Write the structure tokens for this entry.
Amino acid sequence: MDYSITGLFEAFSEAPRPNFNEITTHAIDECTECKELSRSFEEYSVVDVPDTLLEYHGNDITLFSSKAFRYYLPSFIKYAIEVPDSNAHENILYNLSPDDPNSDFWSGRCDQFNSYEKEALISYLKYRLSICDVTEVNCIDSGIKYWNQK
Ligand SMILES: [Zn+2]
């Protein structure tokens, strides 16, 4: 099974780019972690975030605001396809298989995707399922079910 990265970026072409103050939800003068994340991503559009940043911030996806999550998700997916066992990969799975979908956090993040984007996320999860380790099957399955119902 193949996955088209070009198709992924096309599907997300309408996701609005966050400005510096919209990248995380914590006040950036109060949280050094979020400040660093915002500074790192500020200058990059979704198609040109360097791999070193995607590797380094692979664990930080939940720190992104909903807007930045939607916008930068394709960068992390691209990286997780190139480096299948990266932190980004595990974190994407966690972020696409909400444990408590009706909570404020998850509903705010997951309700914003349009039909092209949802389709691309489902294709990614199906691709992942075709190459994954047995320990990930349940998590990926629940993610596919979740996005199919959205
Ligand atoms: Zn923070």
